Amino acid sequence: MDSQSVLGKERIISLDVIRGFALLGILLVNMPSHSGSDLFFLSGMDKQVLLFFHLFIQTKFYTIFSFLFGLGFYIFMTRAEKKELAVNRLFSRRLFFLLLFGILHFALFWEGDILTTYALVGFILILFYKRKPRTILIWAISLMTFYLLLLLLGSLSGTSIYEIDEGMVNYSIEEGEEKVAAYTSLSYLDLVKWRWADSAVEYFSNNLFIVFDILAVFLIGLLCGKLKVFNRVKELKNRFRRLQISSLLLSVPTSIIIYKMFALTEDVTYIFSLWQLLFITLSGITLATFYITTITLALEKAFWSKMLNPLRYVGQMALTNYLAQTVITFIIFYGFGLFGQITLSQGVIFSIILYILQIAFSYIWLKNYQFGPMEWLWRWLTYGKKPAMKKRMEVEG
To answer: Which range is the signal sequence, renumbered to this chain (predicted)?
Structure first.
């Protein structure tokens, strides 16, 4: 199976595999917030796990998802055009319901939702669909540069390059104790009210800041869609290889700086300074590129294609699995009073187990059905017509 193989109606399998891989990273990076293990000082193994997160996970996987969103936007629009549908109106409808999913996700379960931001930024993306590749590239570079400059200016005027401000840490610890108390003592409805009061303003203000970054990566995904990059992997194999090597080499200096900063921070919490965020963001761009190119090239090899194939089931049900990760962890950590009771290291083990179960569930589900449950609902709401859920028996020719 090469990257040009398709699943169902023209699905590019490599994109499902990359999306499935990204879901593992998303789960790992979200688990500390889901479980409350990000609220206190870290030491021993947990400190090393946090360093691993900063080096290899933090910002890397939402960058991959943002890239895939932009690419998926192009695929959706071109297929809708072939069917002679009103593409802007249809995609706007799709975004509206994604926004609704995101608001419910945020309101009912977790303040770290990303769907709301993706939906809102997606409306801006529509403006770029008809633009030329060169125009899209210029906008992407400009937006990313502007975002990095904002981080740089914030870093120069704020927190020390080598240590987290003591007041910030103490404040975060106080907030952590308050959050644990809320999750372990309040009823569900009272917890929802508390979370809105505690997190809503901060959530929307923080996401305003990250819009530039997300839109820039959306545009890179759109650009790759326009250039048919993932339909031409064999043809572009040497370019993929050069990009893979160069992105890895560019990740080395930022990783060294992140390591040095981390090593010089004595009292470690999950919160990091703007200086750290600046370099973590830079490494997120380069390592996300390395991950994407590495997986794409690996799928050209029979052995790695077989090994990575299970990830495509998770990726094909990405919305279902993303929301399920939140619901399952909420039930376990809030429902059973375990919030704030596990370590960062234990959270990693829990994440891996949950992800393996999601692979198994996705595989079984997709043996019988064309879409994941949430994908089916989203499609129904988007087109206004109930799609068939059950798979039809197909005769292979």
So the answer is: none
Give the phi and the psi of residue 7 in degrees, each rounded to 5. -125, 125
Which parts of 86-187 fold into alpha helices (H)? 87-108, 115-125, 133-157, 166-185
Residue indicated by tokens 């009061």: 197
The tokens for 266 are 């004595």
Residue 118 neighbours by CB under 8 Å, 6+ apart:
66, 69, 98, 102, 214
- Integer Cα distance of 135 and 323 in angstroms: 35
Helix (H, G, I), strand (E, B) or coil at 268: strand
- How far apart are alpha carbons 204 and 209 in whole angstroms? 9
Exposure of 131 by Cβ count < 10 A (0-12 exposed, 13-18 middle, 19+ buried)?
Answer: middle
Instruction: Flag whether pLDDT at 395 surpasses 50.
Output: no
Which residues, 6+ apart, have CB-to-CB distance to 179 below 8 Å? 36, 39, 198, 340
Tokens of 74: 């192009």
- Rounded-to-integer distance, Cα 180 and Cα 334, Å: 10
Structure tokens at 3: 């990257």
The pTM for the full model equals: 0.90
Closest to 51 measured CA to CA, from 253, 279, 261, 285: 261
List CB contacts of 43: < 8 A, sequence separation 6 or more.
268
| Count of all residues that appear for the chain in the document | 397
Please tell me the distance from the alpha carbon of residue 264 to that of residue 271, in angstroms, as a whole number: 15
Q: Where are the domains of the chain?
A: 6-383
d(CA 228, CA 71): 10
DSSP helix/strand/coil, 12: strand
What are the φ and ψ backbone dihedral angles of 138, each rounded to 5 degrees? -60, -45
> Three-state DSSP class for 45?
helix
As a whole number of angstroms, the distance between CA 30 and CA 344 comes to 11
- b/e sequence 276-313, b meaning 16+ C-beta within 10 Å: bbbbbbbbbbbbbbbbbbbbbbbbbeeeebeebbbbbb
Q: What is the pLDDT of residues 296-355, one digit of tens each?
A: 999 999 999 999 999 999 999 999 999 999 999 999 999 999 999 999 999 999 999 999
* The one-letter amino acid at 146: F
Q: What is the Cα–Cα distance from 35 to 332, expressed in whole angstroms?
A: 9
For 49-98, write each residue's pLDDT tens digit.
999 999 999 999 999 999 999 999 999 999 999 999 999 999 999 999 99
C-beta of residue 55 within 8 angstroms of C-beta of residue 259: yes
